[in-house]
Every structure is written in C-alpha cells, then in structure tokens.
Amino acid sequence: MDIDTYYQLSGGSDFRDVTSVFTLASQAMEPGSMVAIDGFSLHDAMTAIEIGDPRLDTGMQLEAVERPEFDPLNPLLPEEICWIIDRSMAYETEWHASNQLAHTVFTLLYVHCLNDVDPDILPILSMIDLDPSRPLELITLVLRAYTSGLLKSCNLAWNELCKGPLLDAEDWHSDKSEVSLLEGWPVEAAVARLDSGLTWLSTTTKVTPLWQEALKLRLQFRRNILLLLNFTESLPRDLGVFDEILQSTRHCLSIIRAHPCKSITSSSPARAAFDPYIARRLNTFLPVRIIDLPSWEHTCDAYERLLNGWEDIARLSKTYQLSTWNQVGFQQSWFSAPVARPAYIRSCAQTLFFDGMQVVHSQPQGWLVDRLFEETIGVSYTVFAQHWGGSGTAALVELERRVIHTVIPHIRGLWNNPARRRRFLVKSILDWHMIYDTLCGLVESVDTINIDPVAFRTLNQFPKAIVLWRLASIREVILSGFQLELYHPLERPFAYWFVAEVIDIHLNYLDVVLKGMAGVVPHNSSSRKEIHYQHVFLVALQAMSMAMFMSLIRSFLPNTIFNQWEQLRTNLRRRYKWAFNSAYDDYDFEPVVLEPDFTRFLREVQEVQGQEIMSNTELKDHAEKSSRSSSEYFELAQRLLQGLISTNNTGTLEGNWSHDRMRLLLGMSETCQELQSYFSGSTSDGDTSQILVSKLDWTRDFSNNIPKTPWFPSVWLQGGAEA
Amino acid sequence: MASSAITELRQLLNSTIRITVADGRIFLGSFIGTDQPMNILLTDTQELRLESPATGDNREDNELCSGRFVGQVLIPWKIVRKIEVQEPTQSQQRTRTQLDYDGYIL
C-alpha cells in the first residue's frame, strides 16, 4: 500500500504525533483523576466498547489466522465453483435456522464484491482466459448469477420475516451489517441473470458436460427458490404455477442430493472464497461465531423442510375452514422439532392467515365469527345474531370484536416458537372465557316466554362452542409442558391427572353439542364428522393420561407425594398460575374449568397407592367397584386408536395433514402397547420403583430419534437402545 | 511541568485523534477523556484495518477496507502504539482590507 492510500484511508496526512503528550500527562496525573470533556460521566465510560477485550471487541484478532489470499477474479475450476455454491447453500439453510447473516451467508466473500466480477465493467485484458480449464465466465456469469440469486432470496425471506409477527433475535436474526441484499433490485433482474448463466452453461464448450449439468442444476435450483419466495406473497393467485415450480424444485433437489460435489484440495484457491471471520470487518457489534457447517445430507434435509413448508402454505392459502387452520397449527408443533419449522415458513403461515387487514387473503374479519360457530356447532352465527337485530348491531359489536381479537392471535400464535406459543395459549384461556361470559349474558337476556324452545336450545349452544375452544387451549397448555420439558418428575403425575380431568369435561361438552345438533345439523356434515373424531381421540388420550398418572404414582415410594406436598403444591400453584388468575372475578359467569382440585388429586393419589398394597382379591373387588387399572386404561386407549386407524378416520383433515393425523394415532397406539407391556413387565419382575422411572424418557431429542408421541415417554432398554 | 503536560492533554479534548493499536488497526475518533492509567475514550469512532498484502489480506480495492463505525470505544494504554492528533486547518491569512471610501466624493 502506498503512503498516499494509507493516509487517504486513515483520515489524511495532517496528523501530528502526540503519544508523548499522553505519556507525560499520565506521569503527572494523580491516581483516580481524569481528564475529560465537560459533562462527562462514569456512565459514558461504561457504555464504551473496550478495544482488546475479546468479549466486546468484535474486530479483535484472537490468534494469527492464516488466511489464503482472496482475489475475486482468480480463475477457478468448475468443481471449485460447484463446491462454493454447495457451501453457500449450507450457509443459507443455517441462516434460516436462526443464525446471523454475518456468520453464514456473508462469509461468502463474493457477496461483498459483486461489482468486481461484473463482466460489463471488467477491462478486456482480464477477460482473456489464461487457463482453458478455468474459464472466467464461471465467475463472471455463473457464480455471480448464483450469488445475486442467493442475496435476492435472502432479501425476500428477510422482507417476509420483518412483516410477520415473529420476533427478531428470538425466531430469526435481521442484522444485515449494512451489507446489501440487493433490496432495490427487481426479482426479474435476478432471474434474468440466472437465465444468462444457464444459457452460457448450455452453449459453452469450455466446461465438461458433467460439470455443465451439475452447475446448471444448482442455478436452476436457485432460480426456483427465488421464484417460490416471490410467488408466496401472491398466493393463492398463481397456485398452479407455484405447484409446478415446487415440483421442479423437488426434482432438482433430489438430483443435487444424490450427486454432492466432492471436496476440493486444501490448496485450492476456492477455499479463500469464505471468511468465517467476516463479522470482524462488517458494521456489526456481533461477536464472531464460527458456524459448524452441516453435512450435505442435513443441508438437503433443511431445503426439503422448506419445500414441505411451502407445500403446506400453498394448501393453507386455499383453506377457508377455521378448524382446519386450528388443527394444522396444533399438528405442526406436535411432531416436528423446532428446527424443522423454519421461521420463514411459520411467518408465511401467520401473514397468510391475517395480513393486518383481511383473513386468508380475501375474507373480512367478521368472517371469523361466522366460521367459528358454523364449524364448531354446525349452526350459523346469523341464527344467533337475528335475535339481536343481525350481525354488527350495537348489542353484538363487543362480542364480535372479542371473537376476532381472540381467534386471530390464537391461530397465528400456533406458528410461534414453542415457548411463545404456550404463552399465547395461556393468554387465550382468559380471552375465550370473556367471549363465553358475553355470550352467556346475551342468552340470559333473551325473553324465554316469547321464544320457541327449540330456538332457545340452539341459542344456548353458542356459549358451549366457545367452551370447546377454551378447553382445547387448556389441554394444549398442560400437554405442551411435556414438549417443553417443563415438569419436575413429581409434577408429571399431576399434569396427566389434570389433563384427564379437563378432557372429561371436554367430552361432556362434546356430548351436549352433539345432542344439540340433533335435528339441526345433517348427519354427514363436517362438524359432526370432526366432533366424532375428537370424541374418540379424546377418550383415548384421557385413558392414556390416567394410565400414566396411575403408573407414575405407583413408581414413587409410598407417600412421596404426601411427604413433599407442601413444596409440590407451591410449585403447582406457580406452574398453573393461569388457573389462579384473579381476573376471572371480574366476570359474571363462572368459568367451566379453572383451578385444579388439589384435594381431589390427593384423594386419587391415595386411592392408587391403596390399590398397590391391596391383595389380588381385594384389587379385583376394588376394580369392579370403581376405576380401571393402568393396564386396562392402556388397553382401552389402544382399542379406540386402532378403531380410528382401521377405519382410516382422520376427521375432516385431508391429504398430507390427514397423514400427519394418522401418524399421531399410530404413534399413540404404539406407545400404548410399549408402555403397557413395560409397566406390566416391571411389576411382575418386582422391579423397584426408581429403576422403573429412570427407563422412561420424556426428553425431546429429535437428533437421535423422533418421539412417537409429543406427550408420552419412550421406554429405554438396558444399554441405551430404545424399545 | 506537571500541570503543563495535563494542560496540553486537556487542549486535545474534542479533537480528532488517530490511535494505532498493537494488532494494526487504527481508530479515528473524537477524544473525550482519559484516566491516569491512560484508558483513552473516543466517540464517533471509525475502525480501520489497513493490512498489507503480506499479512494475507489484499483488499486495497475492496470496499471493506474503508472501515466500519464502532461508536464509543475505550482503548487501554497497553495496546496503544501511536497517538496522533489532527492539526486544526490553518485559516487563510487575510491580506486584503476594505478600502476606505471616505475619501471618495461621489
């Protein structure tokens, strides 16, 4: 670097050395004294970044890192270009997995020098290929087109994530470190650049056919991803085109997956194209973090999940059933690991449901009120509204506003991250009660003398519809505690017991709603079909929960719950604080389920422990008189689940979502069998209680094995292999 | 002697100073204070990295070479290699004076 450049870059040449002034002043100053501008405070000093401190100074070079020299115009072999593209794809999936751009996509140095490889402004001499095996077009046309497409793809995903309700720094990272994602550049231009690269690859004789195909596939894949990102916004308008592109992308991915680019030599100049320490030189305060690149299989899996997500989004874009949105929202969080649900897809689902103005693209917000009642009890909201002068009248405005303000966050919240999703559900429990309270008040105000009894019975169904949604939320809040691994071992029996109690009340309400449908709702209606499915499923879930409660209580040493009750009760009050919310006192009508009955729980614990010490004859007598044994509960659950499986009953869900539901049923059925044989085997072997529990695994480690059910444990055999 | 050194240091407050640190980076910012061990505080600071090609970074033509904004920083004396202050721009000496028109009769 010449002296002029040095001075030009570092502030100019009119500087005078004053190091000695500082040295002398330091000697002259008293310890603890300061020389500072007026108004300077210690707080100002505290907020400064300390240079040289590795925790704060992101630009600090911790050790001498030997980096190969990067020259963007350094000619590369086709396989080296392929290697760079594959590596950048892995980094893109890592950004979608909630990492920083500065640690992933921006580590590709071509991102920062696209203009330097622009063939239109390069001097003609640079364009002459010195090595025929390394044509410069591979960089100026192919890699430049790919990198531009990559940046534009990130830009489109970034825009969607900014628009949606997901949180920056929690679900994704927005920091662009002042690096351009080609924001002002149209998608069409990026596509045209990729097309130019594809055309050159199709016609050139400078690249062998094998590498031509490999590079063309990668460019085509990028082009498709870009188009999918672009079309997502306009769904369901271009659904046919979207589906075609999706299929084509799946095809590209399957070939790319099967033919990964082999690693390049350690001395290859292509290795200089990535600088994992780039954050040190970008406008960011982020500390440098080296991301371990996932394997090629993992990268392809991540793209596969993105494509599956797009398929779901395309189907949701033409789904106008509120209950389907609700069920799909629940299901997507039950089975896949959080990492399997890219923030981009979750954000798309949320903005697709409600974009701030309309619901599912075209429906007014009032549509939600109609759908909620129509789908839950099979009766149109207009039947209810006509008694108060029709929808939108003064008497109903508050009710309709509450329904809209509860349903929208409820559905959108299902695509939040697991912890936030649970918090949203907890909040919605009170919101649903507020609607219930308003509805009860309205029904109570009806003049029962001048109304037909059948019509009044129908009106009375409307508050019950809300109870069903509220109970489903409560159930999900309790069960999601298992998915989030919130519960202490002593809390687990209580959670299973409480959820069984909630389901019991839910089943009673389903019966009431089904009776109410008699003569009003046709037998083959979707509402009835879904209620029938829910009924059988909930009985099975309740039976499994009761079986787990009983088995876990028996696995403890006698009186464990009673001995530790004081501490346990405090923990439970904290864990279920939503159930002890004093805000319910402000409403006239009592909530259907609220505080868990601790006395009842303890009585049942005592009963289960009592069974354990009874003789076989006593146990048989007792079983006949009162409750089932845990084994019988598992049997009952499995029988019911098998009934659903054999009749292929998945309620109103269709297509892939129906397969997901079936997967849940199969997983639960297998779990029933596994746990039943395990618990009965352990009991007959005289297995001690502590060993029994230690073999049950509630952890949600998706990396080793996908759990069969979201809420029940897996059984581990000796040696760590899963049963 | 002692007070004059401190006075001279005080006169540097609010001026633009350039500090070269041990790892080769240069910090260009406004000097707002220091304590007795010479922990120097700069505000509105730019970080500049001007490695030569020999160190493995050849980015003379690279936009990254222009540095980045790091805001308010504290630079400990132990890593300081050189401190420079920007000379105030010399005001052009005025040699022309307004003509005295009083003598003219219009």
From TrEMBL, chain A:
Cellular compartments annotated: Cytoplasm
Keywords: Cytoplasm
Signal peptide: none
All copies of domain NAA35-like TPR repeats, residue ranges: 343-507
One of the Pfam families matching this protein, by short name: TPR_NAA35
Annotated ranges, domain NAA35-like N-terminal: 31-189
Primary site of residence: cytoplasm
Family (UniProt): Belongs to the MAK10 family.
The protein's name: Mak10 subunit, NatC N-terminal acetyltransferase-domain-containing protein
Organism: Lentinula boryana
UniProtKB/TrEMBL annotation, chain B:
Entries under InterPro entries matching the protein: LSM_dom_sf, LSMD1_Sm, Sm_dom_euk/arc, snRNP_SmB/NAA38-like
Cross-referenced Pfam families: LSM
Limits of the Sm domain: 7-85
UniProt-listed Gene3D superfamilies: 2.30.30.100
Record-linked SUPFAM superfamilies: Sm-like ribonucleoproteins (SSF50182)
The protein, known as: Sm domain-containing protein
